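Task 17 of the worksheet. Students: predict the tertiary structure of the chain below and write it out as structure tokens. Keep your answer in the requested format; marks are given for formatting as well as content.
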Amino acid sequence: WRQADCWAMTENYQQFNLPFLKPEVYNLQAINGKSVGEFPLTYFIAAQFSNAVFALRFLHTFLFFVGIMATYFIAFFFLQRRFLALCASLLLLTSPLLIFYGNNFLTDVPALAFSYIAWAIFLYAVAKQNNLLLLFSFVFFTIAGLLKASQALNIIIASAFFLIQQKEQIRKKPPIAFLLFFMLSFAVLVLWYAFAKRYNYMHHDKYFFLNLFPVWKLSAYDIGLGAWRMAISWSNNYFWRPTLLLLLIGLGYFIYHRNKLDKSLLQIISLSILFTLVYIILFYQKLIGHEYYYTFFFIAFLFIIIGILKTYNTFHAENIFAHTVLFLLLLLNFILCKQEVASKQLDSRNNPFYGTIAFHECLETLGVDENKIILSLPDDSPNKTLSLLRRKGYTAFNDYRSILQNRQADFLILGNEDWKDNKTLQKYLTDSIGAYQNITIYKLK
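Model answer:
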């Protein structure tokens, strides 16, 4: 559902040659489909290629792997052990959530990747007191926040960490460069989201979520449901469940031995956990229904994994047997991640013929060209079938009864024979102009 919106925006950029700041989707619930959520940078770039869908997948996958490479440098900064730093990065590659959405259309994982790149640069910038590196880190933090608003919390985490680390120097000399980068980053994010809200308001779009939905607005049942999904029923999205249990035990072991570890690592873990809780509180309603919102958790996950491996290294630095078990556990996680991602890919209910060249040619011969407005039924999402059809129009997500009554669509494309018995539709099914693989096309006006 949500990925089809990203796909729709990418295809609209290409199909209608749209300017960057005038994004559209296929569903006409807003004026001409004009609506925007996250910063559409990757959608616009992908639209410049002939095969925009492949380009978008490739771009997001590339960014994901660059982000994973960045986690190695983050881990090595604290661990100073190549094998353990590599284990931290490889463990992230066994997350079904990251693997599935990393090679897809949503910007959640690319935004996480930019955050990882920013953290890798930031840590070395603080250690070396290098303002140029600090500038680059804020650039990447800003891009991450533009692609996904929740990732902007990394700027606050990093800033708090910087102030704690540099408190002695700050007393002697104010960190002018840091404050400037922070304010510029904050200003860019505010300007974009102000523009996005204004753009949606001007075109009467109420679909894209650009607000908070905190926990205190929900019922006790919804709060319990969200907690159950995050902690239990949807936890297989993070890692293989036995691995999660081992991480939980490792976290307890880390907390018990926390006084023996690097204070800076302890500070960054504490801050990342704190702001993950802030994120959960502020976006709780979205966490109930969408597992891709859990992507932000992987900031804290990374630092927790590093903390666990740091504790492990303190007591098992030269234990070859333990290293072997760790390596075999990673291999098992890869196998089980592959199975979990394969099961997620089975969740498809669209008629595959909607997206074929042959069907599109059939539509053209019937007069259903790209300038015609269609009503596509059944489809409970805004853009799934419309993206496959590459046509503007409406679906069952809209009030299709009102659309039919007010003659707002030129054609009805019906992809389910059972819907012909729908009493609301029957009087509009009088002018069938063609059929293709159980899809019937009706002229409405």
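Marker's comment: The longest strand covers residues 432-436. The chain has a mean pLDDT of 90.
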